[in-house]
TrEMBL record:
Single GO cellular component term: mitochondrion
Name of the protein in question: Mitochondrial carrier protein
PROSITE patterns for this protein: SOLCAR (PS50920)
Keyword Transport: yes
InterPro entries: MCP_dom_sf, MCP_transmembrane, Mito_Cit/Oxoglu_Carrier
GO biological process: alpha-ketoglutarate transport; mitochondrial citrate transmembrane transport
Positions annotated as Solcar repeat: 111-193, 204-289
UniProt entry keywords in alphabetical sequence: Membrane, Transmembrane, Transport
Species for this entry: Triparma laevis f. longispina
Length: 297
């Protein structure tokens, strides 16, 4: 987006206005993804990371405890809904970082894309960590899923202190930074490849093509899954002991071996692919449509 202003000698200059519409587009994309099945995919993934049960057993347990609809949206109200803000830093911080690096550093595009993804991921971690902690607790223990939100927060703060809401933050910053670096980098490379196959490489990609780019980028980002296992286990209510990433990893390995770091990988791949389809694919499409209406040269 650009705006015009006059310099001291009367010459018209162009100044870029930050893409504030991404502040709205990001959360809306997350809400759409979560409401249409994305949340339940994450519920299965988180439950699997905390339990050796099979997926059918996990589903049966969730349904017996919360009913079919309750299982599908367990932990979503209010923690999942609050987490819709995680779409804000991803699109806005990543986009603004990419713009700043492109215009104020000599970095090539091959370096700018990963760095901007890391910035968006780390910003997201600070937004998400407290609600992710509370969502994990609601999924792991049914008593938290029926308690009033304020009582859940009071219970956590009374038991482990205010800082307990940020259990796993270091690992989450590492994981989400790497995660979104991979998502945006791979999605962008697939985008360029698809464009290269067209008669006119400058032609904007269609919605389904952008969604496909996001699906591939999301699938590749599942390589960070072992770190995610460490985060989830450090946040579950039954965990006792030091919660720094290395200590938690040692506990997982002692209890389950190397396989413990792969629990929930299948829904993780599906979850990441579906989520990035919304964030990169649908989000980019909406942003470009908004740009046609609001950004004037």
């Amino acid at each position: 987006m650009s705006a015009t202003m006059k310099s001291s000698d009367g010459v018209l200059l162009k100044s870029r206005v930050p893409a504030y519409e991404k502040i709205l587009i990001g959360p809306l994309c997350v809400l759409g993804e979560m409401a249409t099945g994305g949340h339940y995919i994450e519920v299965l993934r988180l439950a699997k990371q905390m339990s050796p049960q099979t997926y059918p057993q996990i589903h049966s347990t969730l349904v017996s405890e919360s009913g079919l609809l309750g299982a599908f949206y367990r932990g979503m109200i209010p923690w999942g809904l609050i987490q819709c803000v995680k779409g804000l830093p991803v699109l806005f911080v990543q986009g603004e970082t990419k713009h700043l690096l492109s215009n104020h550093t000599p970095f090539p595009q091959s370096r700018i894309e990963p760095l901007s993804g890391i910035a968006g991921g780390i910003a997201q971690a600070f937004f998400v960590c407290p609600t992710q902690k509370l969502k994990v607790m609601a999924i792991a223990d049914p008593k938290y899923s029926v308690m009033k939100p304020i009582n859940v927060i009071k219970s956590v703060v009374n038991d482990i202190g205010l800082t307990g809401l940020y259990d796993g933050l270091a690992a989450m910053c590492l994981r989400r930074g790497m995660d979104w670096m991979i998502r945006f980098t791979v999605s962008a490379k697939v985008n360029l490849y698809v464009r290269s196959l067209k008669d006119d490489p400058t032609e904007p990609l269609k919605l389904h093509e952008l969604m496909g780019c996001g699906i591939v980028g999301g699938a590749f980002s599942a390589i960070t899954h072992p770190i995610d296992c460490v985060i989830t286990n450090s946040q579950k209510p039954s965990y006792v002991g030091s919660k720094d990433p290395i200590s938690v990893a040692k506990v997982i390995y002692r209890e389950s071996g190397a396989a413990g770091f792969g629990r929930g990988l299948a829904p993780k791949i599906l979850d990441n692919s579906y989520h990035t389809m919304w964030m990169y694919g649908i989000g980019t499409f909406i942003y470009e449509c908004v740009g046609q209406w609001t950004r004037k040269e």
